[in-house]
Amino acid sequence: GLYGFLGALGYGQSGIQLVDTTSTHGVLRMNRSFVDEVKSGLLMITSLGNTKSAVRSVRVSGMLHHVRKEK
Question: Which residues touch 8 (CB under 8 Å, ≥6 apart)?
Answer without folding.
Answer: none
